[in-house]
Design a protein that fits this description.
21 helices, 417 residues, 12 strands
């Protein structure tokens, strides 16, 4: 009877849209209830629906209550069938409500992840389960049980954090998974990053520099050779080549690999180190110190892990940092970020309202970039922040080069031209 009924209704194209709408209604409500509305009906649809509903059906629009359709079905030759039985047979399987489908998927997902927790029995893995990142959920939704090897690799890695000392990421990946490229960004790197954000409670970590710091906190080095900082006038306690470079008037580009080997760092003279954002300014300043290079650090834009590691060693040794950067949201935020990390050991240098106005730039700032300034909290940056929001213009270090050089010459102990 069921198959005869389905064959009958499928043989008439006038019923197709009605049945599709009734099936969707049952999925939404989970029962035979409510009504469906068809608009712009064809003549074929009007004739078919009108024949079973025993009424005239207009072409403009027509509503069908599912209970009414079932009542008419009972009066037909298929009266032994309920509407639910008919729709199940029409669909080819039992119609399950959307709510039940979601609950089934959620239950299956929970069983999957709890199975991983039982497999590892590790505090880190349990922490991840309690705060599953969206990237983990997306991977499961995309691949289901086929994602098991990926999650085994990720949870094996996260259960090994933190590393004692440091380990390079490709070496770590090979040790954990047998493949040095497992945690590359185009593979499982994003998931490893998101897992580390949960473990270290750093949800807002987004820039490449912040991610590198996050990995370092876990004991992992993403790149310790191409990650470098440029310096002059500094002395490492356990290496002589820093002093040799100073004596030869040579700038050092020190990679993170070497920074991590240094026990302590101090300026060659005095207790102050000057930090600039841009390499052009760094080099131009050095041109004005031909006899003895000053204690100077160049970040090359956003501070990399090498820069942060160096500045930490300087601050640990009692050094005061003077930072000068561009008057754009990115440069101001670098100052803010360094201040939050180093507190009063970091002093904004030529970063006031008057210095901004002295730059005299006409470069416009977009509203999107200006919105970044809302994160500025340092009281010494408050005035320049408001002035930048008002003028919507950027200012650059190069416009203050003579003032920066004058400041350094007056502050560096024992300096003479």
């Amino acid at each position: 009877m069921k198959q005869r009924a389905v064959d009958y209704f499928k043989s008439d194209a006038g019923y197709q849209r009605l049945f599709e709408e009734m099936i969707q209604k049952v999925k939404r409500l989970g029962r035979i209830s409510g009504e469906v509305k068809l608009t712009a009906l064809s003549d074929v649809e009007c004739d078919a629906i009108g024949s079973i509903m025993r009424c005239a059906v207009p072409n403009t629009a027509f509503k069908v209550r599912l209970k009414d359709f079932e009542a008419m079905l009972q009066k037909s030759v298929f009266g032994s069938l309920s509407l639910k039985e008919l729709l199940d047979e029409y669909e080819g399987n039992e119609i399950v409500s959307n709510k039940d489908v979601r609950e089934h998927k959620r239950s299956a997902r929970d069983d999957f992840f709890y199975g991983l927790v039982r497999r590892f029995d590790d505090t880190n893995v349990r922490t991840i389960l309690d705060n599953l990142p969206r990237s983990f959920l997306r991977l499961y939704e995309e691949k289901g049980l086929d994602a098991t090897p990926d999650f085994l690799a990720i949870f094996s890695a996260l259960s090994s954090i933190p590393i004692e000392g440091y380990e390079r990421l490709p070496v770590f990946a090979e040790r954990i998974t047998g493949d040095p490229h497992t945690f590359d960004q185009d593979r499982l790197g994003r998931l490893l990053t998101d897992g580390l954000k949960v473990l270290f409670d750093l949800a807002d970590t987004s820039s490449l520099e912040e991610v590198a710091e996050l990995y370092a906190a876990a004991g992992l080095l993403k790149d310790d050779v191409n990650n470098f900082v440029s310096i002059s006038g500094l002395q490492a306690s356990n290496f002589t080549y820093w002093a040799l470079a100073q004596s030869e008037g040579a700038v050092l580009n020190v990679p993170l690999r070497e920074i991590l080997k240094v026990k302590s760092v101090v300026p060659m003279s005095g207790r102050s180190v000057f930090v600039v954002e841009n390499s052009g300014v760094f080099s131009a300043i050095l041109d004005h110190f031909p006899n003895s290079m000053p204690p100077l650090v160049c970040l090359h834009g956003q501070p990399k892990l090498s820069s942060i590691a160096l500045l930490e060693k300087l601050v640990d040794g009692g050094t005061t940092l003077y930072y000068s950067g561009d008057f754009d949201p990115e440069g101001i935020l670098i100052c803010e970020r360094l201040w939050r990390r180093f507190g009063d050991h970091l002093i904004p240098w030529r970063m006031g309202k008057a210095d901004y106005e002295a730059c005299g730039t006409t470069v416009a700032l977009s509203s999107r970039r200006l919105s970044m300034l809302k994160n500025i909290q340092h009281h010494k940056l408050a005035d320049v922040k408001e002035q930048m929001l008002e003028s919507s213009k950027a200012g650059y270090q190069e416009g203050l080069l003579s003032q920066l050089i004058r400041d350094m010459k007056s502050m560096i102990h024992g300096y003479c031209d």
